[in-house]
Design a protein that fits this description.
Elements: E1 5-8, H1 18-30, E2 45-49, E3 53-59, E4 68-72, E5 76-83, E6 102-109, E7 114-124, E8 127-134
Parallel strand pairs: 1-4
Antiparallel strand pairs: 2-3, 3-8, 4-5, 5-6, 7-8
Length: 149
């Protein structure tokens, strides 16, 4: 059985400034041919919740498992990697180019604390499914407050 790399961390910071993301998105919408170059993109995700866990499904068609990394802490996940493009045919004229290639990164801040000991991830048919067990209320410790007189 092969495993997806999962790293456990504490804080996740976005590498690009908000300004740079706005510029990139603007040029992407003006001309889809900008997608032919290697640039950053964001995979689409579905996030749902049950009473016991949070389930994240990410569409990553064409991403090799070796180019996929998942980092987790108790309040957030970070998914990043790279999708390599297929070299275009010589003397071909594109009429439409919507498939995005290059590096990607998604950081999701979770609505509840998760148990980092109970995490699973599977990758099949271009979809990554991440299951995150919620930290149960019995595992949360109450701290007694002392009063000064």
């Amino acid at each position: 059985m092969e495993y997806i790399k999962i790293k456990f961390g504490t804080d996740f910071e976005e590498n690009e400034s908000k300004f740079q993301k706005v510029i990139d998105d603007m040029f992407q919408s003006i001309n889809p041919l900008f997608t032919l170059s290697e640039k950053s993109w964001k995979p689409q995700m579905d996030v749902c919740e049950t009473t016991d866990e949070i389930i994240i499904l990410s569409e990553l068609a064409g991403v090799d498992k070796e180019n996929l990394t998942l980092e987790i802490n108790s309040k957030a996940i970070k998914l990043y990697g790279k999708r390599h493009g297929i070299p275009p045919e010589k003397k071909v004229k594109y009429r439409l180019a919507e498939i995005q290639y290059g590096t990607f990164e998604r950081i999701l801040h979770l609505p509840v604390t998760i148990d980092t000991e109970k995490v699973s991830a599977s990758y099949s048919n271009g979809f990554l499914e991440i299951r995150l067990a919620k930290l149960s209320r019995k595992d949360i410790q109450a701290i007694a407050i002392q009063y000064d007189k």
